[in-house]
Amino acid sequence: MTQTNPTPILQHMVEITGHRDQSRLEMSVISALRHLVSIQHVRKLEFQTVKDVTCVRPRVLMQDGELLSPDAVAGVPDGELEPLSHYPALLRCIEERGANSQDEHEGQHRLWLPVRLDDKVVSCFEMSNGTPFSPHTLEVINGIVEVYRNYQSLLDYSERDALTGLFNRKTFDEQFSRSAGDRGMPPQDDGGAATQWLAVVDIDHFKQVNDRFGHVYGDEVLILVANLLRSSFRNHDRIFRFGGEEFVVLLRSATLENARMIFNRFRTNIEQYPFPQVGRVTVSVGFTGTGHGAPVEILGHADQALYHAKENGRNQVCYYEELVGSGELQAADVAHDDVELF
Fold first, then answer.
1. 26, 46, 159, 245: which is the annotated catalytic residue?
2. What's the pTM value of the predicted model, to 2 decimals?
3. Smaller CB count within 10 Å for the chain: N or C?
4. Residues in CB range of 144: below 8 A, 6 or more apart
5. Is residue 321 annotated as part of the catalytic site, yes or no?
6. Which conformational region is residue 295 in: left (phi greater than 0), alpha (psi within -120 to 50 degrees), or beta?
7. Sheet holding 246-254, edge to edge
8. What is the rounded average pLDDT for all residues in the chain?
9. Would you state the pLDDT for residue 78?
10. How far apart are CA 183 and CA 46, in angstroms?
């Protein structure tokens, strides 16, 4: 059996554990596998629960041996949601609590590597080749993915909200500040320029839910809203819980027209969802472009649009720049102590 030089492996381990950004962490894992073993295609399957059915949404990370950059991954449309039952080898692996599983499909040998957090499968790496995976290749792949699993568990413990599993406010502060230099062009009123958008989401009359039904049902509403957020947005978008009933979404690579449509689609998904015991729940959304301004200013603008929505009937999506242009809001400099979320 060919022995692998340990030096490149150690270098890759250092690189993997040096990342805190999720996308770059994933890409460093795939980069290590690409240099150490032969793999042609890699996808990451994100798990979501839709109406009590476990589904997967694939995201391409490597195609024909070529590693995609995080920006390229963000530009590739996510695959459609599919029931987990469409992947029998993976489903069997999860049910048997296996570390990996293999099958052959249309001439491709596929390897499944589930990622568990707190004893729950949250995603899976799918790797495929035209030839079978050798025992040595499997050993290297399992070792690298196990390092990823352990490191991801440590990151999630500090970066995610315990109730919903979404990223927490601390993680938002770090990620949004880090991306301040490359948020793209400022938004265009005609909707023609793709850019990044920030939305603040608030559950309408949530205090009444807690007061009438109790905090157990209130927590269930928060969890279900978090699940609907996951299923309403793409894998490369980022969703955060800021505490209480407030959430923040970073929507990447979308025109104004598409951003408005996506946020309204999410609002409609909430309005039409039958929440157990509670019944009808609605949300208000305020959003803005992220092309100009400090993070606290951008968040403050989205927050102003949100409160305009809540003060004018709730259950609607409001765009900050549009409100300012129509005179319904006054543009003002936002100081750090003016933003409630901070």
1. 245
2. 0.65
3. N
4. 12, 16, 29, 32, 33, 36
5. no
6. alpha
7. 238-243, 246-254, 195-203, 283-289, 317-319
8. 83
9. 60
10. 25
